[in-house]
Design goal:
398 residues; six-stranded mixed sheet; 14 helices; globular; single chain; binds adenosine-5'-diphosphate; alpha/beta
Length: 398
């Protein structure tokens, strides 16, 4: 079956068409600047050139229509007609406590996702616009929603509660939810496969390090803790997001700089992280270049980032009373050779030993620890689209 995987944001839409039998990506691409002047479709068939087409996309429905047109196009299309799309898998961001698993999308499901909208006001409504547009253009094609938060619903209460009045949890469901769940699940499952060990018996720490970053403790096949919270702002130092910070520090800054709540949140989301610390860039390639030239601004940002990741790994090793495997994934985790080495240099007490030669790898599944290392360490590319396609097929063929 061919599955169209859709990741729909407020002004952009990423897609992949995946053959679920071979797990090959037949075509992929994105629509940019939907609803804004200058929109374009980037389309890449598996064995063809990347094409960029400027075309008006006043709404997401028009954007998806252009995607479908590209997929069935005589010259560069990869299918003959819409009937060759068996199902659509949607990435949905926040499922709150409503969803612990991927789910077939029905009107009741859409209503439940809408109930979670105020937990992710930027993402959920945009995700649902994508769902509605697909329903309009592909009536009768089954659709599945795969939530970023779902995998973490197995966290115990002691891990998801904040130390604030319990009534805020009772009244408003204020708690840790965690994100990147599809990635953490894919990577932790995949490493069990590679290790030839039962998923249900492994203690894994997954470090998803990209523009947004999070760490997850997966014990016996279940997420037991993760670094992001109610929103994706908590935890690690990220590209532009602060991660953990004393709320009192922000009250102090707000008074000094005359910022209101929006101003404070803007600083924490967009002006902080390694960008804020370095003043150079949120992109790790730029920071690595700067660090190579011994630029103190680049060095301090990278050191603070690495140290924070190492602290979380330590915390999660404690939470699970041990760790068998540590995985690095996403843009920085898969490509940041020096970053992986620097993080692992803190983990000698766990018996972690990196093999420098093996670690000299980008974007490939590879063991990067030495044979004597007490904990196995992997570079392991994530594949959220494939995980969504698999979940979609599983549900629609049930
Ligand atoms: P997102 O969270 O947007 O999905 P990604 O997982 O794609 O992010 O990660 C993007 C980040 O990966 C970039 O900001 C960049 O810092 C980092 N990255 C990509 N390639 C490299 C590389 N070759 N070396 C170091 N970092 C890289």
């Amino acid at each position: 079956m061919n599955v169209l995987v859709i990741n729909c944001g407020s002004s952009s839409l990423k897609f992949q068409l995946i053959n679920s039998e071979t797990e090959d990506v037949l075509a992929k691409g994105l629509c940019e600047r939907i609803g804004i002047e200058g929109s374009q479709l980037v389309y890449q068939p598996a064995d063809g050139e990347k094409e960029k087409t400027q075309a008006p996309m006043p709404t997401h429905t028009q954007a998806i229509q252009l995607v479908i047109d590209a997929l069935v196009n005589d010259k560069t299309g990869v299918i003959k007609s819409l009937s060759e799309i068996g199902a659509v898998g949607h990435r949905l961001v926040h499922g709150g406590e409503e969803f612990a698993n991927p789910t077939v999308i029905t009107e009741e499901v859409i209503a439940a996702v809408e109930r979670c909208n105020d937990l992710a006001p930027l993402h959920n409504p945009a995700n649902l616009i994508g769902v509605r547009a697909c329903q309009e253009l592909m009536p009768g094609v089954p659709m599945v929603g795969v939530f970023d938060t779902a995998f973490h619903q197995t966290m115990p209460e002691k891990a998801f509660l904040y130390g604030i009045p319990y009534e805020y949890y009772e009244k408003y469901k204020v708690r840790r939810y965690g994100f990147h769940g599809t990635s953490h699940m894919y990577v932790s499952r995949r490493v069990a496969e590679l290790e030839g060990r039962p998923y249900e018996e492994l203690k894994t720490i997954v470090c998803h390090l990209g523009n947004g970053s999070s760490v997850c403790a997966v014990k016996n096949g279940k997420s037991v803790d993760t670094s992001m919270g109610l929103t994706p702002l908590e935890g690690l130092i990220m590209g532009t997001r602060s991660g953990d910070v004393d709320p009192g520090a922000m009250e102090f800054v707000a008074k000094k700089e005359n910022l209101d709540l929006n101003g404070v949140m803007n600083v924490l989301n967009k002006k902080s992280g390694v960008l804020g610390l370095s003043g150079i860039s949120s992109d790790f390639r730029d920071l690595e270049d700067a660090a190579e030239k011994n630029d103190p601004a680049g060095l301090r940002a990278l050191e603070a980032f690495n140290y924070r990741v190492a602290k979380y790994i330590g915390a999660y090793a404690a939470a699970m009373n041990g760790v068998d495997v540590i995985c690095f994934t996403a843009g920085v985790g898969e490509n940041g050779i020096d970053t992986r080495e620097a993080i692992c240099s803190y983990l000698g007490y766990l018996g972690v030993e990196i093999d420098k030669e093996a670690n000299n790898v980008r974007g490939k599944e590879q063991v990067i620890s030495s044979p004597g290392s007490k904990v196995k360490v992997y570079c392991l590319p994530t594949n959220e689209e494939l995980a969504i396609a698999r979940a979609t097929v599983e549900l629609v063929t049930k």
